[in-house]
């Protein structure tokens, strides 16, 4: 495995950091000297993250139970904190790895710096920094095979949303469900990552057009062992799509009521469901929402 790599993209504004499976796009906004210092801090922190995770990988791949795993790395501990609320069902800390890495790097970037805003995008799982008076707009692509912006979310400093993540059977991670994409807004990238995983798992149905295989047969290093993961979703009847999305929406609303997420956008074969912001009076689809 080659060591950590860092370079600026052709626009000269965004930093690309890559090491093994970790692939980050980093951007900061503010005074030029502050941005430059933030990028140096991001690079320094990034260089050791993968090895820290590899050193504790056997524990990180174990399903959570009532015993808190004793982990040393700060990124690993972020993963456990994000996955911990879901330990009554099957989950390993790896469900939050991409978001936790993004959180760790953005935290290093902003330490001691005066930035207007910054983000770290880890394959679509994103951690944010927003100073007072600043905002970011995020777009959602539900089907990477037919790239189009399916939704937008406005993220403002005062909303206290500092992470968003997407999960689904089409993504780079394996899923127990059939959602094309579930995008979650939450207090951190790790929290959004774990919640998106669980909501995407809940978008589910049984139908001959759905193909599944044991996770270990798809990827021999999967933390999901022999659990059946979705490998193909053919065209489904509209009522099957409707029921599957409603199951996912119920899970999203439950997590929202528990304060674990702000909101979520769910999509499957052109049908969508959306929750409103957590502080709204209702979470029914079609009402006032952060999503457009």
Please explain how this structure is put together.
It contains 7 helices and 13 strands. The chain has 292 residues and is an alpha+beta fold. Strands 1-2-3-4-5-8-9-12-13 form a 9-stranded antiparallel beta sheet. A two-stranded antiparallel sheet has the order 6-7. The chain is globular.
Order of helices and strands: EEEHHHHEEEEEEHEHEHEE
Number of strands: 13
Helix-and-strand structural type: alpha+beta
Average pLDDT, all residues = 92
- Main sheet, how many strands, which sense, barrel? 9 strands, antiparallel
Uncertain ranges: 279-288
Distance between termini? 42 Å
Oligomeric state: single chain
User: Outline, from the CA principal axes?
Assistant: globular
> Strands of the biggest beta sheet: in what spatial order?
1-2-3-4-5-8-9-12-13
Percentage beta strand: 25-35%
**Percent of residues in helical segments?**
25-40%
What brief labels describe this structure?
292 residues; alpha+beta; 9-stranded antiparallel sheet; two-stranded antiparallel sheet; 13 strands; 31% helix; 26% strand; globular
Brief overview:
The protein has 292 residues and is an alpha+beta fold. Helices cover 31% and strands 26% of the residues. The chain has helices at 32-55, 57-60, 74-83, 97-110, 189-202, 215-218, 238-257, and strands spanning 5-8, 15-19, 22-30, 115-122, 125-130, 135-140, 151-156, 163-167, 181-186, 210-214, 228-233, 263-268, 271-274.
Topology:
Elements: E1 5-8, E2 15-19, E3 22-30, H1 32-55, H2 57-60, H3 74-83, H4 97-110, E4 115-122, E5 125-130, E6 135-140, E7 151-156, E8 163-167, E9 181-186, H5 189-202, E10 210-214, H6 215-218, E11 228-233, H7 238-257, E12 263-268, E13 271-274
Antiparallel strand pairs: 1-2, 2-3, 3-4, 4-5, 5-8, 6-7, 8-9, 9-12, 10-11, 12-13
């Amino acid at each position: 495995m080659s060591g950590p790599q860092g370079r600026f993209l052709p626009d000269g504004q965004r930093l690309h950091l890559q090491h093994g499976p970790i692939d980050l796009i980093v951007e900061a906004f503010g005074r030029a000297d502050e941005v430059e210092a933030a990028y140096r801090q991001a690079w320094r922190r990034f260089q050791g993250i993968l090895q820290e995770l590899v050193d504790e990988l056997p524990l990180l791949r174990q399903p959570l139970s009532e015993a808190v795993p004793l982990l040393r790395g700060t990124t690993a501990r972020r993963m456990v904190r994000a996955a911990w609320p879901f330990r009554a069902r099957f989950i390993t800390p790896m469900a939050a790895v991409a978001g936790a890495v993004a959180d760790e790097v953005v935290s290093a970037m902003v330490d001691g710096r005066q930035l207007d805003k910054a983000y770290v995008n880890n394959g679509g799982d994103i951690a944010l920094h927003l100073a007072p008076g600043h905002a970011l707009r995020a777009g959602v692509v539900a089907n990477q095979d037919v790239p189009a912006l399916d939704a937008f979310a406005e993220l403002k400093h005062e909303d206290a949303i500092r992470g968003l993540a997407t999960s689904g059977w089409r993504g780079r991670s394996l899923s127990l469900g059939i959602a094309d994409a579930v995008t979650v807004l939450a207090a951190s990238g790790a929290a959004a990552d774990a919640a998106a995983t669980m909501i995407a798992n809940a978008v589910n149905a049984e139908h001959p057009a759905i193909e599944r295989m044991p996770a270990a047969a798809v990827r021999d290093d999967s933390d999901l062992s022999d659990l059946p993961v979705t490998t193909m979703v053919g065209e489904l009847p509209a009522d099957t799509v409707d029921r599957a999305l409603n199951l996912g929406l119920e899970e999203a609303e439950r997590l929202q009521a528990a304060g674990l997420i702000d909101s979520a956008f769910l999509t499957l074969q052109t049908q969508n469901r959306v929750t409103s912001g957590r502080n709204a009076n209702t979470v029914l689809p079609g009402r006032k929402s952060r999503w457009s």
